[in-house]
Each structure stands twice: as structure tokens, then as C-alpha cells.
């Protein structure tokens, strides 16, 4: 290893390290006094209450109150069809503030972007003006959330998918993404580094796109190739996504990873179910609904609900120091 003699080299080295060391913004959210954490997950929702969005919101309010949820996660496709036009777009009020009105939902929302959000003005969704208008709103591309014994890693998955860069009939807002190869390799490096550093008992990764799914879109091969190996190498417990407009639970056969799709926030019933390995497929529902999660130091509970408040599927898991399930 070369010894550093010149202060210029030191400064350059510092700049280089600052540019390569994890740049993901970090947030902290307190857990409950009993040490547990609970949250709801909804995806693919913003349609001014239509397509059962309001019914999903109503049941989220009920379940959210019963569980006294700490926060809500949005898996993206926040505003249909084409994201927000700008920070004054009335869709923000009509599809978000005016829909998720239940008292239990007036908690912090943590949102990522979906491909439909990229069809509009992406920067508008990050605007502090929206948070001034509705204090529960927060949307970023990729970030980390520490909540007691749980670390969340939110990943901007849209730029991974090749087809958005070749489609000729659709425009995407790629500001701050290009050159794409650099963006993706930096992001993967940052996520990997953050996961490696995490000492949390539970590691949860959230993105818009599926890794595995039997729904209309199916698997996202780019994420299977590039993101999945990082999740497996770092012992991630849950990968949570939207994109397919359904509720779904797929269990990995070769790692602890559970793939949970909560994309039933509004329009659903595509009627498309791809064949899938039934050993892995634990649950598939083609209609609207949402997911609820509770995590204590030692156990995680996941449940899916439909628009009538019926629990459709539940799953739980213990996490000991050297767990196996
Ligand atoms: C709303 O939900 C009901 C019950 O699942 C379903 O029958 C109906 O088709 C849904 N409506 C729309 C527009 O998706």
C-alpha cells in the first residue's frame, strides 16, 4: 500500500471516499414502549379514491387503529397514470390527503417511487412543499430507516428495468439518474455496504418492482440478477414490493428471504396468474387490499387484508441468533 505524503493526495482521497461511501440518507423511527414495531404497506394506489382505493384506505384505518401502527410504507406508483405534474398538482390532495383520512393513518408515510411516478415530474414528489401541505408525506429514491431492532432499506428499483429506457411511446423523468450505469452501480454498492454494516435483528428491503411474482408483470430479471444476490448475501429477512396489482407471498427455498407483494392499493383484478413453483407460492390474491406487519425482537407477523377487512393470509417467523426455517 502506498504511503500518502502530499496533502493534495489526502484531499483527493477524502473526496473519493466521500463519493464512494454510502450516501443513503438515514432516518430514525422510535418503536413502541413494549419494544414492538408495527406498520402497514400499500402500493399502486393513487387514483382519486377510485377502483376501491377508498375501501382499501378505510380498512387500513381500522387495522391501523387496532395495531396502533407506527408508520405506513408505500411501495410506489403513488400517483396514476403519470406521477405528479408539479408540486401544485391537485392529484396529491385528491389521491393521498383526501383518501387516507383515518386517524390511525395520520402517521409518517415512507414512500418510494414506482415506474408510473417516473412518468411525471419525479422531483415534485420529493418537494418539501408537499410535506408542508400534508405532514405525513415523505418520498425519496433510496434511503435507510432505523426503527429499533429493524432496519429498512428503501431501494429505487425503476432505473433497473431495461425496458423503460427503450420504450418509444413513453417518457420518463431520468433527471439525476443518468448516466444510468453509474447510478445503478453506486446504488447497489451503497445498499450492500449499508446492509453489511447493519446489526439490526431484522433487515427489510423495500422496492417498487417485484423480484419474484406470479402476477401480470412477473419476475423482474434485472433485480433477480443484480439485487437478489446482495439480499441473500446479507441475510435479508423480507423483500417488500408493489408493481403487480395483487397481494402475494413467496417463500424462498434456498434462503430465509420472504417475497411480499402489496400492490393492491387500487386498480386490480388483472386476471393474470403465471405458473409458479407451488412450494414457494404461499399466497396469491388478484384483488385489492394491503399488508400489515408486526415485529418484536424475536418474531415477525405478516397479514394480508382485503377491502372488507378480512384477513386473507398470515405468516409468522421466529428470529433467534442462528435461525433456520
Ligand atoms: C372492488 O372490490 C370488489 C370486492 O373485491 C370487487 O368485486 C370489485 O370488482 C372491485 N371493483 C373494482 C373497480 O376493482
Automatic annotation (TrEMBL):
Protein name: Uncharacterized protein
Organism (species): Arctium lappa
Amino acid at each position: 500500500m502506498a504511503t500518502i505524503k502530499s496533502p493534495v493526495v489526502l484531499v483527493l482521497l477524502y473526496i473519493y471516499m466521500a463519493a464512494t461511501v454510502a450516501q443513503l440518507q438515514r432516518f430514525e423511527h422510535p418503536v413502541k414502549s413494549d419494544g414492538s414495531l408495527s406498520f402497514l404497506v400499500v402500493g399502486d394506489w393513487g387514483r382519486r379514491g377510485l377502483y376501491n382505493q377508498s375501501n382499501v384506505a378505510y380498512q387500513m384505518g381500522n387495522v391501523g387503529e387496532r395495531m396502533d401502527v407506527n408508520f405506513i410504507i408505500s411501495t410506489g406508483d403513488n400517483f396514476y397514470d403519470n406521477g405528479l405534474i408539479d408540486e401544485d398538482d391537485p392529484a396529491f390532495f385528491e389521491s393521498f390527503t383526501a383518501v387516507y383520512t383515518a386517524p390511525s393513518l395520520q402517521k409518517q408515510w415512507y414512500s418510494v417511487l414506482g415506474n408510473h411516478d417516473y412518468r411525471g415530474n419525479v422531483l415534485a414528489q420529493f418537494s418539501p412543499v408537499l410535506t408542508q401541505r400534508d405532514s405525513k408525506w415523505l418520498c425519496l429514491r433510496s434511503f435507510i430507516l432505523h426503527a429499533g431492532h429493524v432496519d429498512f432499506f428503501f431501494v429505487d428499483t425503476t432505473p433497473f428495468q431495461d425496458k423503460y429506457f427503450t420504450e418509444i411511446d413513453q417518457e420518463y423523468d431520468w433527471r439525476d439518474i443518468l448516466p444510468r450505469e453509474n447510478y445503478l452501480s453506486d446504488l447497489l454498492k451503497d445498499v450492500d455496504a449499508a446492509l453489511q454494516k447493519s446489526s439490526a435483528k431484522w433487515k427489510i428491503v423495500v422496492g417498487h418492482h417485484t423480484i419474484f411474482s406470479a402476477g401480470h408483470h412477473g419476475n423482474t430479471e434485472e433485480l433477480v440478477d443484480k439485487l437478489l444476490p446482495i439480499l441473500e448475501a446479507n441475510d435479508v429477512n423480507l423483500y417488500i414490493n408493489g408493481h403487480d396489482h395483487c397481494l402475494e407471498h413467496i417463500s424462498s427455498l434456498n434462503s430465509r428471504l420472504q417475497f411480499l407483494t402489496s400492490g393492491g392499493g387500487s386498480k386490480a383484478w388483472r386476471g393474470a396468474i403465471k405458473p409458479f413453483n407451488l412450494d414457494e407460492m404461499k399466497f396469491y390474491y388478484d384483488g385489492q387490499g394491503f399488508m400489515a406487519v408486526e415485529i418484536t425482537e424475536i418474531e415477525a407477523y405478516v397479514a394480508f387484508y382485503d377491502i372488507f377487512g378480512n384477513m386473507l393470509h398470515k405468516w409468522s417467523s421466529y428470529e433467534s441468533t442462528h435461525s433456520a426455517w
